[in-house]
Amino acid sequence: MTVPPGRRERKKAATRQKIADTALRLFLERGYDAVGIRDVAAEADVAVTTLFSHFASKEALVFELDEDFEHRLTQAVTGRPPHEPLIPALRHEIQALVRHCTGDGAAPVWRMIDHSPALREYEESMRLRHAESLATAIAADPGLSRTPTACRAIARFVIDAYSLAREAADPEAAVDEVFRMIEAAWEVTCPSRRA
Question: Which of 129, 131, 135, 192 could form a disulfide with 152 if both were Cys (CB 3.0 to 4.6 A apart)?
């Protein structure tokens, strides 16, 4: 049973969300490069130190769900029922993430990211980190028994599936298409097939 967050945790979460919402609004109104950290802190009515206690960098303000996405991906591996196959669990989670990131209002945010070298670089480093966390979770599952290389490759394919689908005309169809290839690659890495 999970314990509901206490008042202090709720207050911290509300402050974090207020900062993120304020930053995104300012970035979209004025342009990412035209808004500084001090502008965000002033508009959110928090100290700069408070802002940095919640977000490590200006780029992190745009990707405020970064840690949540990473956790959800690893949880798709570690939290699935004992006999549920890995790839369908990952497909389900990627579909949910793609729906979230292609929903109403997402297009202006992605245009902003696409036009900012700093945000594109941050997104790439975030994707690599997500892939490494996912590979670690896959490798740690004793029921999956794949080589470290296979775990890392599949994890990168999964993260790339998200990126490709986000940019596709039909994101859900793109996830299905890419995951058919991921499923085939996963089956090829099965130890019994290599024997």
Answer: 135
Helix (H, G, I), strand (E, B) or coil at 142: coil
Cβ neighbors of 59 (< 8 A, separation 6 or more) are: 118, 119, 122
Rounded to an integer, what distance in angstroms lies between the CA atom of residue 71 and that of residue 48? 27
How does pLDDT run across 25-67, given as a tens digit for each residue? Answer: 999 999 999 999 999 999 999 999 999 999 999 999 999 888 8
Reported for 162-171, long-range contacts at CB under 8 A and 24+ positions apart, including other chains, are 162/94, 162/97, 162/98, 162/101, 163/127, 165/94, 165/98, 165/102, 166/98, 166/101, 166/102, 166/110, 171/98, 171/99, 171/102
- The pLDDT tens digits of the residues spanning 158-191 come to 999 988 998 888 999 999 999 999 999 998 887 6
Q: What is the DSSP letter of 3?
A: P
pTM greater than the 0.70 cutoff:
yes
The Cβ of residue 86 has, within 10 Å, a number of other Cβ atoms equal to 21
Q: Specify the length of the chain in residues.
A: 195
What is d(CA 167, CA 102) in angstroms, rounded to the nearest whole number? 9
